[in-house]
């Protein structure tokens, strides 16, 4: 089986190389990479056919065939995948929490929403300011100016609340342009959590000494915003929601890491457009701190966008699944989640998702390092554009790309950049010849896309 897989990988790669274009595996969801040498941009067809729907392209379009080829894989729903086991464990934890009135699970779990969303969903609905850096082309994969691959599962918060849900998880693949190294990949998976409370639910437990309900309120007029709360919220409401959020998260991680009796964790103050106050949650493993999620008290204007007006207050969190799975199973490289190699997948072939497993490397195949130095004839290359191009050509054979040198040469009036590209396959030894061919291909595409001279 492994040998067969290897042969398949090699032969598809050779096919790609010979045609000198990068193609995704499926018939739709693909296009050839061609460059406009004058404008120095990728030439997109007037429309992209993605999941049987046509999307017009425009100056915002920056998706690439590598990203399109990953669409619909839904690793979190692939039976016996590590992300499937992890989401099962998160599911089990939340399903145990019952709605006291109905004795049914409090949280609904939604894991099948399309990752193609509107700018309205991804940013506007959750109050991301128009000039916020998270909207930029260099951080996202846009299909066109109105449509993109969701950058986070928060994109669905408002729609799900509007559909009537008061407590839910939303799990799915998210897409971001980022650096290339063993912990970053342009696609990863997130789990969003939201819980809302009306006055009765929030203060249910609170009775005064005579057993009467205290007249506690969620909202107060003429209130101010400061580090602890939003304007319009009472401090007592915020403190109860904060306690519920932090309890939910610490208990979740105690369940996910049951033998870490000494699981050290900490809350760091943070800022997000859609929550205030906000925090990040970190845990300590072997002396290293890992940031696992962002969370906070939902901005009241997000709830207003959801049509809930003034009755509810709530918390939200968003956690990265790969991060947690890498720690939980000892998976050293984020590309492994995409491996179809049976040496990897067979280690997760079991029914009981709570089974403690430590990943054993199939084998450490050698790295192959090639540098790429170039003079830029015009402007400096944005490293994120280069990372995208390298990943588009080299696919998952690229382990890491580092910008190792950059300077401006006054006499020549040119910028120079040198990138170190580290190649390594997850399941076979690459030959020098094969790497040289890919590297040459990357150089050629760089010349075409960025108008550079290779040094
Ligand atoms: N959407 C944030 C991200 O991807 C994570 C996040 C932070 C989600 C705070 C939330 C939240 O729901 O309340 O970086």
How would you summarize what this structure contains?
By secondary structure, this protein is an alpha+beta fold. The chain has 12 helices and 18 strands. A 7-stranded mixed β-sheet has the order 5-9-10-14-13-12-11. It has a 4-stranded antiparallel β-sheet with strand order 16-17-15-18, with helices on one face.
How would you describe this structure to a colleague?
This protein has 455 residues and is α+β, with helices and mostly antiparallel strands. The chain contains 12 helices and 18 strands. It has 2 domains: 61-329, BirA Bifunctional Protein, domain 2, CATH 3.30.930; 368-454, Ferrodoxin-fold anticodon-binding domain (Alpha-Beta Plaits), CATH 3.30.70. 27% of the residues lie in helices and 26% in strands. Helix 3 packs across helix 9 and helix 11 (383-394) packs across helix 12 (432-450). The radius of gyration is 24 Å and the shape is globular. Residues 1-26 have low confidence and may be disordered. The structure holds 3,4-dihydroxyphenylalanine (DAH). 3,4-dihydroxyphenylalanine binds at residues 152, 154, 192, 272, 274-275, 278, 294-296, 316-318. Pfam families: FDX-ACB, tRNA-synt_2d. One of its GO terms (biological process) is phenylalanyl-tRNA aminoacylation. Its main location: mitochondrion. This is Phenylalanine--tRNA ligase, mitochondrial.
